Sequence to fold (282 residues):
Amino acid sequence: MASSSDNQQSKSKSKSTDSQPLPPPSAAHNPAPIYPPPTMGYPPAPHPGYPPAPGAYPPYNGYAYAQAPPAAYYHNSPQNYAVEPFHASFIRGIVTALIILVVLMMLTSIITWIILRPEIPTFRVDTLGVTNFNISKSNYSGNWNATLVVQNPNKKLNLTFKRIQGFVGYKDNTLAMSFADPFFLAVERTNLMRVRWTSSSPDDPGNWEETEEKLGKEKATRKVSFNLRFFVWTTFQSGSWWTRHVILRVFCDDLKIDFGTPNSVNGSFSAHGHHMHCAVLM
Fold:
């Protein structure tokens, strides 16, 4: 009997012991966690849940050593460079060369003008006459003779008149055309240019009837105004280092021929002692 009671008591103690809660573990009884050793060459990573050790540096996202980062670290994106088309560069080069050429030509012309100071020659009518001048409803005739004084005002440039084409006109009608002899004119020199024309028929028969009527009325006053036109192919030259070719246009307007009487067929230029200067254009 005694043994049975003892057994009951021991069972009751064990139940009471099992039902009581266990005390919380203390730091002294907790075993130290075991972690794998750090990789060679890298600092140990901090463990989650624990603050960094005193005196330790904060974690760094980059790489603390000179070892190259993995390939994924680099962002090797292709860079797009704007390549200039070849034709655009070629056109730009041509335009630049043309601009430089124009500037050089302008500078050359300015320097030449400063050094040589080229001047246009002067022309003035000295004499002008007509013989056997007849007009009718269908045609006209006449022999013309003119003498012009040509002067070279340049001090450093010689002039050569290689071709001289002259016209005799009345109003807008051309009465005669001829060529004068070429000649050379040295610096600050003067020369006489003689021209002869022979007229036999109008250049525009359809317009001549009206012109003939006006010319007949003006001739009845014994004085008729004619004009001379010249195209002169001229060369300006200074030694052998500078030469320039130009075409001069000479206009001698309102040259009054005095016939003396309305029925006269011969007339001459009356300048009343004044020479008629002509306009010269290049």
